[in-house]
Amino acid sequence: MKVEAIKSIDEAKDIKAFVFLLYEGDTSPLAKLGSSTARRLREALKSLSFKGKEGEIVRLPALSRKAEVVYAVGLGKKEKANLDSFRRASAGAVKSLKKDKIPQAVLVSPKRNRSFSQAITEGLILGNYSFDKYKTSKEEGKFEVERVLILGADEEGVKVGTILAEAQNYARSLVNEPGNVINPITLAEEAQKLAKEFCLECKVYDEKQIREMGMEALWSVGKGSSTPPRFIHLTYKPSGTPKAKIAIVGKGLTFDSGGLNIKPGDYMRTMKMDKSGACAVLGIMRALAQLKPNVEVHGIIGAAENMPSGSAYRPDDIIRAKNGKYIEIDNTDAEGRVTLADALSYASELKPERIIDMATLTGACMVALGEYTAGLFTNDPSFGEEIKKVAKDTGERVWELPLYDERLRKKIKKGPADVVNTGGRYGGAITAAMFLEEFVGEGIKWVHLDIAGPAWSKEDYGYYTQGGTGFGVRTCCEYIMRYLDGKE
Ligand code: BES
Ligand code: MN
Ligand code: ZN
Questions:
Q1: Does 458 qualify as catalytic in the annotation?
Q2: Same domain for 87 and 188?
Q3: What is the CATH classification number for the domain harbouring 37?
């Protein structure tokens, strides 16, 4: 779908469908269609008892030749509506256009400065997403909206919004691909394809090289599968001297069966999404290659499939990670942190000032925060605050959980090795984060996002459709643009 900015309604003479985003109790934007049409539209809205509440959407009858189809979409109260309200309303609009098979529309919004134009664009493109490549019947679900023109929008906002939303949709599609299609090898091929298309550097290490480089942790998790692990390192380098250097690390379990500590069937279902962090990394690198910030960015993925077999790693195994620390395996289903031990060690060796990792790490995080909010952990309070601020605008909900509980930390610091890969029943998201912290290099500012909940949506909501969400793509990119490149 193409989103464009237009300066006047006359630029869209051939388009007869209109979408109005309206605050509660404020129908003034309708005046754009001329006062007599606006009057009749207001009457129609009244008779449909449209208030403009968030989530409200009505289709009005044909009232003029200029506007054959008009949708009114509620934004909620003006004082309460934020960027994400506009994103969700725009997604709602595009979902209606899709349902009614209307290929083109003009959108009118009460706010259209740069950030709102960006949010509206994101909402439209995210809302138009569907994953239907495996549906062979032509009818249902295949209709896509071709073009939406936003009246008076900011061109730069539309451009950035398009790049970010397309990158997020790309991540969603990768997450939605099942384990028989995306495995560590094909994920690495996808990274190489992406690098080629968007002029990024890409290095892929195979299972032999993984072992030789000292990444026994990743290697061990991957060895139970007949598809061996891969280590993926993508690099974006700006043309000038970079203002900052950051590594983005993603958990890349292309399928998590639990391994020898096998998951019961209900819990194994949807575990193709255990690569969501990795897919977000690919989406981020794709967006950055187009946004071109003056920042050096490393995208790092340890890709493996966690399977039970005669060659699988076991409980009791003691494994040496890349930074030299020994890990005792208590439970093979706590595999993500084991792969991340090597990925974080590798990232640390690149000496970035900052690392963000994203991982569908623990069910415990979902118990703590619900499935719509990511757990945020950090060793640097101001870095954490910056991410929280960005996340408020992107609508990707995060909530900080503590890392400083030294009694809890003891639970992963026992047994025969330096660390053990689980910390018991309570505070499971925290002990997992503490485990990761063991592999972050000295002096590096680090944020860990446990995205086990928000990486996957069980239902359609706002700009999400059931399935992978691409969570984290927009927050990381915005953070890099806003705080490291300082463009805004
Ligand atoms: N990939 C899972 C975590 C997960 C659960 C993500 C549900 C998304 C939805 C992770 O590898 C896992 O299995 N974690 C275990 C850890 C436990 C064995 C300490 C968990 O959360 O139960
Ligand atoms: Mn697991
Ligand atoms: Zn997992």
A1: no
A2: no
A3: 3.40.220.10
